[in-house]
Write a structure and sequence with these properties.
The chain is α/β, with parallel strands linked by helices. It has 9 helices and 7 strands. A 7-stranded parallel sheet has the order 3-2-1-4-5-6-7, with helices on both faces. Helix 2 links the parallel strand 2 and strand 3. It is globular, with a radius of gyration of 19 Å. The mean pLDDT is 91.
C-alpha cells in the first residue's frame, strides 16, 4: 500500500495518546494536511504533536484532551469541531476500554465507562461528524473493534459484547453509505503489542495468556488497517495465523464453544 492514498486528508483519531492510535498518527503524519488527536492524557498528546510536526512541518495538528467516558465533555469537543469548521474526511475511532475478570466481581463505574467509550462515544462521534465527512465525497471511517467481537467471551463478557456492537454497527453503516462515497472499514485485531492488556486487567487478577506466535507489532496492525481502508474493504483481521484461527473458531457450533468455555473456566477455578 502507498501511504500517498491519504495525501491531503484531514484526520480525526481518538485514543491517540498510545498504542494503535499514536501509530495511526505516525504513519499518516507525512501525508496528512490536518490532524485532530483526541485522548485523556494531555502530556502524551503534546509529546506526540511535537513528534508529528517534526515529521511534517506543514502538518497542522490539534491536540485535544477529552474524556470520552464523559458525555458532556464529548459534546463540548464536537461543538469545538463544528466551530472550527474542520473539513474532516477520515475518522479513526480507535479509543476503547477493556475489563478482564468475572462480571459478578466487576465495578460498575468501570463497566459504565467501558460502555460509554466503546459504544456511546463511538456512535455519537460518528453521528456528529458524518454529515461533514459525507460532504468531502471521499470520506473514510475506520472503527477499531476486536476479534473478541466474533465470540461471547467469559471473563471478558462486557468488552466482547461492546466490540460485537462495533463490528455489527460498522457493517450496517457501510451498507447504508455505499451510494454516498463514504467508506466504512472495521478493524478486528487479535493480540497486539500495546498497553491494552495491562490496563484491562483488574488489580489482583492475572493477565490473560497470549500465544507469542499470534502477537503482532502495532506497526503491522496499523499498516494492514490503512491498506484495508484504502482498498475499501469492509473488514480486516491482521495476521494470517489469527485470520485462519478465527475463521475456524467462528465456524464451530455454539454448543461446542460452550463446552470449551466450561472446560476452561473449570480449570481456572481455585482449588
Amino acid at each position: 500500500m502507498s501511504i500517498s492514498y491519504f495525501t491531503g486528508r484531514t484526520i480525526l483519531i481518538t485514543g491517540a495518546s498510545s498504542g494503535l492510535g499514536s501509530e495511526f498518527a505516525r504513519q499518516l503524519a507525512p501525508v496528512a494536511t490536518k490532524m485532530v488527536l483526541v485522548a485523556r492524557r494531555d502530556d502524551r498528546l503534546q509529546a506526540l504533536q511535537s513528534e508529528l510536526k517534526a515529521k511534517n512541518t506543514a502538518l497542522e495538528v490539534f491536540a485535544r484532551s477529552v474524556d470520552l467516558s464523559d458525555q458532556r465533555d464529548l459534546e463540548r469537543f464536537c461543538d469545538w469541531l463544528d466551530g472550527n469548521g474542520l473539513a474532516l474526511d477520515f475518522l479513526i475511532n480507535n479509543a476503547g476500554l477493556g475489563d478482564h475478570g468475572p462480571f459478578i466481581d466487576s465495578e460498575w463505574a468501570r463497566v459504565s465507562s467501558l460502555l460509554q467509550v466503546n459504544i456511546n462515544a463511538l456512535t455519537y462521534l460518528i453521528f456528529r461528524v458524518l454529515p461533514i465527512i459525507k460532504k468531502s465525497r471521499r470520506g473514510l471511517i475506520l472503527n477499531v473493534s476486536s476479534i473478541a467481537s466474533f465470540l461471547p467471551l467469559p471473563n471478558n463478557a462486557v468488552y466482547a459484547a461492546t466490540k460485537a456492537y462495533v463490528t455489527s454497527f460498522s457493517e450496517a453503516l457501510r451498507a447504508e453509505l455505499r451510494s454516498s462515497n463514504v467508506s466504512v472499514t472495521v478493524l478486528c485485531p487479535g493480540p497486539v503489542t500495546t498497553e491494552y492488556l495491562s490496563h484491562a486487567t483488574r488489580a489482583g487478577e492475572r493477565a490473560g495468556h497470549t500465544a507469542p506466535f499470534l502477537l503482532l507489532p502495532v506497526e503491522e496492525v496499523v499498516r494492514q488497517a490503512l491498506e484495508a481502508a484504502a482498498k475499501d474493504r469492509a473488514s480486516v483481521v491482521p495476521g494470517a495465523l489469527v485470520n485462519v484461527a478465527m475463521t475456524i473458531v467462528r465456524s464451530l457450533p455454539m454448543a461446542i464453544k460452550r463446552l470449551v468455555y466450561q472446560a476452561r473456566l473449570s480449570r481456572a477455578k481455585p482449588h
